[in-house]
Amino acid sequence: MTRFRNILLSVLTLSVFGLLAAACNNASTGEPSVQPSVEISQSAESKESAAPSAEQTRTVHDAVGDVVIPANPERIVAPYVEDALVSLGITPTMQWSLGSYVQDYLQPYLKDVPFLDFTDGPNLEALLAADPDLIVLYTTNLAKDGGYEQFSKIAPTYAFEDATVSWKDTLNTLGDIVGKQKEADAAIQAYEDKLTEAKAALKPYTEGKTFAVIRIKPKEFLLMDGTYYSGPVLYQDLGLKPHPLIKELSWDYNYPFSLELLPDLDADYIFLLVQGETARDKANELQNSSLWQDLPAVKNNHVFEVDISYWMAAGAIAHSKKVDDVVRLITQQ
């Protein structure tokens, strides 16, 4: 790949063309969001001369089509899929960031890994300098409007439709790609074993109870449903019962709601996700409301603020930490 990088650098043409179409989950969610902000041009001749031999590659099918990837990739950049790589025992070459915002829960595993900043679109100059031999896109939103071609000029690129929907499928896919299926199986089994213990511990406290997750952004409150991140863990894996208001209101993975709806949210337990210090004023507005103070969960001290860095993430590590939080917070009342 060093030869590939040198050739690519010799023909690199940069032209800033601004921010392209935003993905469904953008900077407001703390997820990778936009297309590359720098255009990369490379001659077909130089790309062909840099290509590895057939014996060193394999063809796989991703959400975009067939892609030729290294048979044994070693320098992998997978923004917002680092949870899966770490679960497989792999340290990525770069890690996702949004300015100073990073995936805090993964930093013990990634403390020396440089950041790939997505503030104004992925920093392709930094990505190029990192010399990856495989790039993994967590969503096809990053592949739209020429994005896939831009990434592919740097290194072979594998695109998921949406890697956050089923972390197990994502882990199995990556395990196959990097030759670590045993590690993928072990991580999934460890999570299943944790669930068995957690459900037994929670049953005396949660049977017949209802739950809700509120995400607080700087300018709005969102009621999370069961589609992404926290929902699958609480309502599917742990078998907890979502409050009826969640199903009535949620049309996507979260639903904006106003303080006037609070009297209807009489869930037994509520988890709060405060999206950074910029959302703290909004959180105070909620918690200082008389409507909030009248909620059963508030009166019974059944409201818990949790770490948004992994409650708004998907993967074996993130989901395991959610399970640990739920068991600890509910059983130690």
UniProtKB/TrEMBL annotation:
Region (Disordered): 29-58
Ranges annotated as spanning the membrane: none
Chain intervals with Low complexity compositional bias: 39-55
Domain Fe/B12 periplasmic-binding: 73-333
Ranges of compositional bias, category Polar residues: 29-38
Pfam annotation, one family: Peripla_BP_2
Location(s), subcellular: Cell envelope
Keyword Cell wall biogenesis/degradation found: no
Record's keyword annotation contains Transport: yes
Predominant localisation class: other
Gene3D superfamilies to which the protein is assigned, alphabetical: Nitrogenase molybdenum iron protein domain
Database matches in InterPro entries: ABC_transptr_periplasmic_BD, Bact_iron-sidero_bind
PROSITE patterns cross-referenced by the UniProt entry: FE_B12_PBP, PROKAR_LIPOPROTEIN
Keywords tagged on the record: Signal, Transport
Signal peptide, first to last residue: 1-21
PANTHER family (UniProt xref): IRON III DICITRATE-BINDING PERIPLASMIC PROTEIN (PTHR30532), IRON(3+)-HYDROXAMATE-BINDING PROTEIN FHUD (PTHR30532:SF1)
Annotated family: Belongs to the bacterial solute-binding protein 8 family.
Designated name of the protein: ABC transporter substrate-binding protein
Organism this protein belongs to: Cohnella boryungensis
